[in-house]
C-alpha cells in the first residue's frame, strides 16, 4: 500500500542509494565496504561520517555489493513501510552471505537503535548492530564480528556530534553538500519515533561547522544545506575543553549568518524548521543575505488545531497561518514546502478539510505527504487508538496529493516570465544538451546549454517561459 508520496523525486530516488568509491581515490585498501542508505537527509549525511571512520581503518568504499567484505545498511524507522524495505534487503544480503561466508552484514541507524539486539536474536540476518551515536566504535565492532562474535552498540549519547570527523563525500555532484549542525530531537511529536532512535538534541560546535563549510567551498562546492531535525533550536555555547565559556551563545540566526559570510558565491540552505522555533531574527537574516536561499521547509502535519494538539505540535492552525504571513511579509518571494500526515488518530472529515484549506492558505510549492503509520513506543501508540481505516487514510492522502499537485502547478505558473539566478547542478536527466539547476526557492529549472561555455557549479540567469507541475523550463540570458 502506498504510504509515501512526494513530488520531490530526487529524494525518493536516493532511497537505497549505494555510495560509489570517490573519484581518483589514490589509496590502497585492505578491505572493501558497501553502504546503502534509507530515510532522511541526516541518514545520508551519517553514512558519509561512517565512510570517513571506515576509510581511516583501511576500508575503501565499493558500489559493487559482490566485491564487499562488509555490507552496511543505514536504516529508517519513521514508518512501518521503511522498516519493511530494510528487512527485505537484509534477506537479500543473507543470500549473498551464503556464497561469500566471511562477508559481514551490519545494520546502522534508527532501526538498529529501535530494535537493538532483537535484530541479532530474532532475525539472524546481521552480524553488527550499531545506533546513530555509536559510529566511532564501528572499527572495534567490525573486529569483534570478524572474530566470530555478534557485535552491538546502541548507546545514545548526550554530546556526540561527530564534530571533528570530516565526512567523505562519496556520491556527491560536487556542487551541493549536506552539513549536519545538530543531532537528536527534544520535541515529542506524539507520532514520531525520532526522539527515541536519535536521542536528545545537541548542537555541534560552530567552529567545526564553519570550517567544514569553508573546506567544501574551497573544494568547489557552491551550496551547503545545514541539517538537523529542528535547526531553529540550534544553540551552541562556545567553551574551552575545561568547560569555561569563551563567547556568547550562538543561535541558528547567527550560525546562518556566519556560514553566509564565508562567500557570497556559497548558497546556504537549511532543513528542517519546526514552526514553533523559527524566529523573526532567522527570517530577517535570510532576507538580508542574497546567498541564504529564500526557501523554508515548514512542516505543518495537519490543518486542524484539535489534531495538532493530539500530535503535540505545540501550535494551532491560526498560529501557523500567522507564521506563514510573517514569512511572506519579511521574505515576499519565499518558497515554502510542508509535510503532512493523513489519517492521524481520531481525525474526522472536518479535520481533514481543515488540512486541505491550510494548504490553500499557505500555497506550498511542494510537500512530502504520508499517511499515519503507528510506531511502537511513541506517545500516540501508547495514548491513542490508530482508528482511521486504511482506505480512509489512503483516500484522504490522495485528496491532499491532488491539492498539492494543483498548488505546485499554480506556483510554477506564477513564475512564468520571471528571471532567476540558477546554480547549475549538472546535465538534465533526459537530455545531455540541457542543464538542470535550482533557483533560490529550490525549484528545479531545466534549460538548453546552447553555445555558452558553462559548467556545473556556475551561476546563470535563466528566463522561465514554460513549466510542468514539477519543473520550470527556461532559456539562458546573457
Ligand atoms: N524533524 C522534522 C519535522 O519535525 O518536521 C522531520 C521529521 S520526520 C523524519 C519527517 C516527516 O515524517 C515528518 O514531518 C512527518 O510528516 C512524517 N512522519 C513522522 N512520523 C510519522 C508517522 N508515524 N507516520 C507517518 N508519517 C510520519
Ligand atoms: Fe519527530 Fe517532531 Fe522531532 Fe520532527 S520535531 S523529529 S517530527 S519529534
Notes on the structure:
The chain contains 15 helices and 23 strands. The chain has helices at 9-14, 41-56, 80-99, 110-115, 118-123, 138-146, 194-198, 206-218, 252-260, 280-288, 305-311, 317-330, 349-362, 379-383, 390-414; strands spanning 4-6, 17-18, 31-37, 59-61, 70-75, 104-109, 128-130, 151-153, 176-180, 182-183, 202-203, 223-227, 235-236, 250-251, 267-271, 295-297, 335-342, 366-371, 419-427, 434-438, 444-448, 459-467, 472-477. The strands form six sheets. Strands 2, 3, 4, 5, 6, 7 and 8 form a seven-stranded mixed beta sheet that branches. Strands 19-20-21-23-22 form a five-stranded mixed beta barrel. Helix 9 (252-260) runs parallel beside helix 10 (280-288) and helix 13 runs parallel beside helix 15 (390-414). Mean pLDDT is 93; it is low at 1-10. The site of iron/sulfur cluster (SF4) has 9 residues, from helix 7. Residues 185, 187, 189, 192, 194-195, 229-230, 274 line the site of iron/sulfur cluster.
Amino acid at each position: 500500500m502506498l504510504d509515501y508520496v512526494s513530488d520531490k523525486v530526487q529524494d525518493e530516488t536516493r532511497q537505497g542509494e549505494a555510495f560509489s568509491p570517490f573519484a581518483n581515490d589514490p589509496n590502497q585498501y585492505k578491505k572493501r565496504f558497501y553502504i546503502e542508505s534509507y530515510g532522511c537527509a541526516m541518514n545520508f549525511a551519517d553514512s558519509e561520517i561512517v565512510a570517513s571512520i571506515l576509510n581511516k581503518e583501511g576500508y575503501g568504499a565499493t558500489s559493487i555489493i559482490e566485491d564487499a567484505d562488509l555490507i552496511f545498511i543505514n536504516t529508517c524507522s519513521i514508518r512501518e513501510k521503511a522498516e519493511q524495505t530494510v528487512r527485505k534487503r537484509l534477506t537479500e544480503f543473507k543470500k549473498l552471505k551464503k556464497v561469500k561466508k566471511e562477508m559481514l552484514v551490519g545494520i546502522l541507524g534508527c532501526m538498529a537503535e529501535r530494535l537493538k539486539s532483537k535484530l541479532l536474536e530474532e532475525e539472524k540476518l546481521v552480524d553488527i548492530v550499531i545506533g546513530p551515536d555509536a559510529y566511532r566504535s564501528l572499527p572495534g565492532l567490525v573486529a569483534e564480528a570478524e572474530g566470530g562474535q555478534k557485535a552491538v552498540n546502541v548507546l545514545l549519547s548526550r554530546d556526540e556530534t561527530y564534530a571533528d570527523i570530516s565526512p567523505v563525500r562519496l556520491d556527491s555532484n560536487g556542487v551541493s553538500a549536506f552539513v549536519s549542525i545538530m543531532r537528536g530531537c527534544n520535541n515529542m511529536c506524539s507520532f514520531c519515533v525520532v526522539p527515541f532512535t536519535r536521542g536528545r538534541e545537541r548542537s555541534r560546535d560552530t567552529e567545526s561547522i564553519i570550517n567544514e563549510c569553508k573546506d567544501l567551498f574551497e573544494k568547489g562546492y557552491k551550496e551547503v544545506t545545514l541539517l538537523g531535525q529542528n535547526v531553529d533550536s540550534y544553540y551552541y555555547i562556545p567553551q574551552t575543553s575545561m568547560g569555561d565559556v569563551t563567547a556568547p551563545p550562538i543561535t541558528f540566526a547567527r550560525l546562518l549568518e556566519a556560514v553566509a559570510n564565508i562567500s557570497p558565491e556559497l548558497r546556504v540552505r537549511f532543513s528542517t524548521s519546526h514552526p514553533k522555533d523559527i524566529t523573526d531574527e532567522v527570517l530577517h537574516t535570510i532576507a538580508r543575505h542574497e546567498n541564504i536561499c529564500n526557501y523554508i521547509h515548514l512542516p505543518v502535519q495537519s490543518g486542524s488545531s484539535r489534531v495538532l494538539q493530539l500530535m503535540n505540535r505545540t501550535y494551532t492552525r491560526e498560529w501557523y497561518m500567522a507564521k506563514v504571513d510573517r514569512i511572506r511579509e519579511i521574505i515576499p518571494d519565499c518558497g515554502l514546502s510542508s509535510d503532512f500526515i493523513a489519517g492521524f488518530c481520531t481525525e474526522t472529515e472536518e479535520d481533514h478539510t481543515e488540512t486541505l484549506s491550510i494548504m490553500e492558505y499557505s500555497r506550498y510549492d511542494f510537500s512530502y505527504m504520508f499517511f499515519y503509520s503507528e510506531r511502537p513506543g511513541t506517545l500516540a501508540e501508547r495514548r491513542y487508538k490508530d482508528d482511521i481505516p486504511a482506505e480512509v487514510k489512503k483516500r484522504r492522502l490522495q485528496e491532499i496529493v491532488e491539492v498539492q499537485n494543483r498548488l505546485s502547478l499554480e506556483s510554477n505558473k506564477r513564475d512564468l516570465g520571471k528571471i532567476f539566478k540558477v546554480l547549475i547542478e549538472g546535465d538534465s536527466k533526459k537530455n545531455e544538451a540541457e542543464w538542470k539547476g535550482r533557483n533560490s526557492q529550490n525549484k528545479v529549472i531545466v534549460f538548453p546549454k546552447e553555445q555558452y561555455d558553462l559548467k556545473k557549479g556556475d551561476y546563470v540567469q535563466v528566463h522561465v517561459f514554460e513549466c510542468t507541475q514539477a519543473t520550470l523550463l527556461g532559456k539562458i540570458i546573457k
